[in-house]
Design a protein that fits this description.
The complex is a heterodimer of chains A (65) and B (407).
Chain A: E1 2-5, H1 15-19, E2 24-26, E3 33-35, H2 45-54, E4 60-63
Antiparallel strand pairs in A: 1-4, 2-3
Chain B: H1 27-34, E1 37-40, E2 48-51, H2 54-62, E3 67-68, H3 75-78, H4 98-109, H5 114-118, H6 121-136, E4 142-143, H7 144-149, H8 151-161, H9 168-179, H10 185-208, H11 214-220, H12 229-243, H13 245-260, H14 262-265, H15 271-285, E5 292-296, E6 300-302, E7 305-307, E8 312-315, H16 317-320, H17 354-371, E9 372-373, E10 376-377, E11 399-401, E12 404-405
Parallel strand pairs in B: 2-8
Antiparallel strand pairs in B: 1-2, 3-5, 4-11, 5-8, 6-7, 9-12, 10-11
The chains are: A alpha+beta (65), B alpha+beta (407).
């Protein structure tokens, strides 16, 4: 499962970084999302979904491809 | 062009405010499905649209372009309706919208990011240990709220803001007095003035002698729009108000809830469960209750109900967090559950200090239960002073007892 990020909407809440720490981190300078792995393996799909649904700014969009 | 002013319909129901003691007002269970956007009156004397379902709550809180934060989120509970629409105080980013909000938010986000907060763990562990040692030196019963739940988060915030060691007890007393309801109103107001003065002095000293702390970094950091003293003071007071009594209430109410759910308290010592267990406790208790207020700035529709520009909406987090369309068995506390709960709110204003709150609770609750063997509350539930009348739910005074203190 792939995903898109709309960085301009990110508020640096860091929810993605606790929901899916293998996929997301936060930039030290401003707390904005940093993608660690743009193509996470299938076993991380539930974490990716968790990050997407919990992101307070709805920055993460999932796609099937 | 002529415009017709459309009056919203009159309130058709009173504001539900009867929590009992962990659950939302029982009326929400029906309201969520029968009247998901219900016109109600409020304690402050103006009517609002009450939004109580999970998806609708996310829609409102997630759409900051339609729903403004300009009026304080609790105006409908204790506000003065004549103050609605007044410009937000400087630095209080919770009441700013759009760029004015995100400019401040993004300067602070890094201070509260996961990695930065994780570095506070040894400091918080030490504080928790010291305060439990101090409890052990006294004889029970004693008030957990006053002796532990209030001072620990206050000292954590003072560390983050850079309050010098020698001034921390002054800081702690002033902040505790502000929320101590056993004190007369006059004394609480005096304490509020004292802490405003305290912050004014603190900011001045940081401007003169900056250190390695949040306020100093905001002062020193190069930016195209530096914060002035009034903004810094507003921000410091906001961080204190948002990050102090909320965590204190979660510690006190959380302790009581876990004592009433011994099967769940048994999971506290399992670090894997506690990675997310604290979030379940935050969902179950949802202490930011009785609605967070937003003001529509354009006409919109929520759950089929037209909401016009200028009308207010109160989003009831404690109801949304029990919505069975979002979560099954939501009335059960299950620390092993993961959920996209709204206990920290949702949208661009979602709690800035959430990772700090999680860390404090993840340390404090297991340590209280581990070290105070035989921890109990002897007060009958009917005599426990729950904060039904307050903006943030909790317990005003929780007398705990124990058998022995384990090191």
């Amino acid at each position: 499962m792939n995903f898109d990020i709309n960085v301009s909407k990110c508020v640096g809440a860091g929810v993605c970084a606790i929901a899916a720490p293998e996929i997301f981190d936060q930039n030290e300078d401003d707390g904005i999302v940093v993608v660690l792995n743009a193509h996470p393996p299938a076993e991380q799909e539930s974490k990716l979904r968790d990050a997407a649904v919990r992101c307070p700014a709805a920055v993460i969009t999932l796609s099937q491809q | 062009m002529t415009s017709t002013i459309q009056q919203p319909p009159p309130a058709t129901a009173p504001f539900p405010t009867n929590r009992c003691p962990f659950d939302p007002d029982p009326r929400y269970e029906g309201i969520r499905t029968s009247d998901p956007v219900l016109r109600v009156d409020t304690p402050a004397g103006f009517d609002v649209w009450l939004v109580s379902g999970y998806e609708d709550a996310r829609t409102v809180l997630g759409d900051a372009e339609t729903f403004s934060n300009v009026d304080a989120s609790s105006s409908h509970l204790m506000g003065d309706k004549d103050n609605l629409g007044a410009p937000p105080p400087p630095g209080v980013m919770l009441r700013h919208d759009g760029d004015s909000h995100s400019r401040l938010r993004l300067r602070l986000a890094r201070e509260f990011m996961v990695k930065r907060i994780a570095r506070l763990e040894p400091f918080i562990r030490d504080l928790v240990a010291t305060h439990i040692d101090r409890i052990g030196q006294q004889k029970g019963p004693l008030d957990l709220y006053r002796e532990f739940a209030l001072p620990v988060p206050a000292l954590v915030i003072s560390e983050i803001l850079g309050v010098p060691e020698g001034q921390r007890s002054e800081f702690e007393n002033a902040t505790a007095s502000q929320v101590d309801l056993s004190l007369p109103l006059k004394e609480r107001q005096a304490a509020a003035i004292q802490s405003a003065g305290f912050f004014a002095n603190l900011i001045q000293s940081k401007q003169e002698n900056p250190g390695d702390d949040l306020l100093s970094r905001l002062i020193l950091e190069p930016t195209d729009r530096p914060m002035d003293a009034a903004e810094l003071q507003g921000l410091a007071l906001l961080l204190l108000a948002a990050g102090h009594d909320t965590t204190a209430n979660m510690i006190t109410l959380g302790t009581y809830a876990l004592l009433q759910h011994p099967d769940q308290a048994g999971k506290l010592q399992n670090p894997a469960v506690m990675e997310t267990g604290v979030d379940e406790l935050i969902r179950y208790l949802t202490i930011v209750h009785n609605g967070v207020l937003r003001k529509a700035v354009k006409d919109t529709t929520i759950a089929g109900q037209t909401i016009r520009a200028g009308e207010h909406v109160a989003v009831v987090l404690e109801s949304a967090n029990r919505d069975n369309r979002f979560i099954s068995d939501g009335d059960q506390l299950n620390l092993e559950r993961r959920s996209a709960h709204l206990g920290f709110g949702y949208g661009p204003h979602q709690c800035l200090g959430q990772h700090l709150a999680r860390l404090e609770l993840r340390i404090a609750l297991p340590e209280l239960f581990r070290r105070l063997s035989g921890l109990r509350v002897e007060t009958p539930e009917t005599d426990i002073p729950f904060k039904n009348d307050m903006l943030v739910y909790g317990i005003k005074k929780l007398m705990i007892n124990w058998d022995e203190v384990i090191s």
